[in-house]
Amino acid sequence: MSVVLSTASLSAADRRERWHHAVSRTFVPLDLQLLEDDPSPGRIVSNQLGSLRISQVQAGPQRVTRSSRLIRDGKQHLILTLQQRGTAIKEQDGRQARIGPGDFSLSDSSRPFRKTVRSDFSFTSFHFPRTDLRVRDEDLRAVTATAFSGQEGSAALVATYFARLAREAPSLDTFVGGQFAATALDLLALLINERRGYFAPGAPETAAATLVRVKDHILRNLSDPGLSPPDIAAAHFISVRYLHKLFQLERVTVGEWIRTQRLERCRRDLLRSPALGYGVAAVARRWGFVSPSHFSRAFRAAYGVTPREWQTKGLSGDGQDAGADGRNGGEREGTLPRTGPLHRSSPTSPTLGASCPTPRPARPPSSPHSRP
């Protein structure tokens, strides 16, 4: 369900405060300076796909600053901004970049940044937890306040995917949308790793495309308990060694990635299993776990509770997936109220719910060739 915030019906005098509130609630706490005497109307339309919040923003000239004072809130999020109209000047980590229409850039909320736009503008932002992007901190620092051109090369592929994801977001099912969002972040990680020179010279797009195809193959075959690195490599006509090298860039083994994907789907389905007529063991088998005891140990290691405890907690209302029925409401048009709550949150999923246990780091398998 889309969440719409608008200052169009407010007087110019009231727009300044309401817009500041809207921007800080949608993204992270920010200092806002409107660069016109009579503030133009502003509008934000947001949708949630898994951990990814997609917001389409239109407003007039302004400057937003994430200062050291505001960083004390402890939020560690990343914001990818795809510029559509107007030109933004981004500053972070000692760099300044000009972001024009068709370009995109990254900002890290854990460190100070500034963005200035001196004309009417529109952009689409993608806001997500830092932990969801599998790149090293030093590599992320190297690409903040950097203009990625959406017109050529790998960056164009990433920009096209993110732009299309934003257009389709309101109509996507909860689960499907979450998977597309995860793929978007995988593509972004590949782009950053390419820019940092981790792929073999002369063939960065080939390696990136291969990893995307490999992950798609894995996701389509998660229910197969026999899924293994040799089988995956053979299906893509690559060596097992090269397969492991692709995943090493994301600091994860093939087996760890498969196990994580299986556990996440089990965690979601455990809340739906009574209605579907499945028990815990059936849910585990559905996603490729042969041994119930192995599944229970892996689930507890990842989430800190047993499958049965997670299911019981969810069905009692503490961890219920509000979006599990897959319904998508229409866009809610409204204006920012003069008093009362400003922001009405989108339905949460178990991945985002406050009661969802935080996954613990999975213990690496004894061998990269071991099956998940």
Please specify the SSE layout and strand pairing:
Blueprint: E1 3-6, H1 12-26, E2 31-34, E3 43-49, E4 52-59, E5 62-66, H2 68-71, E6 77-85, E7 88-92, E8 95-99, E9 103-108, E10 113-117, E11 121-129, H3 137-141, E12 148-149, H4 153-168, H5 174-195, H6 204-220, H7 229-235, H8 240-248, H9 254-276, H10 280-286, H11 292-303, H12 307-315
Antiparallel strand pairs: 1-3, 2-5, 3-4, 4-11, 5-10, 6-9, 6-11, 7-8, 7-10, 9-12
Helix pairs in contact: 4-5, 5-6, 7-8, 9-10, 9-11
Q: What is the SS-derived class?
A: alpha+beta
Poorly predicted residue ranges: 319-371
Q: N-to-C terminal Cα separation, in Å?
A: 36 Å
Proportion of residues in extended strands: 15-25%
Order of helices and strands: EHEEEEHEEEEEEHEHHHHHHHHH
Radius of gyration, CA atoms, in whole angstroms: 22 Å
- Reading side by side through the largest sheet, how are the strands ordered? 1-3-4-11-6-9-12
Largest sheet: 7 strands, antiparallel
- What does the overall shape look like? globular
- Helix count, DSSP H or I runs of 4 or more residues: 12
Approximately how much helix is present in the residues? 25-40%
What's the total count of β strands? Answer: 12
Please tell me the overall pLDDT. Answer: 82
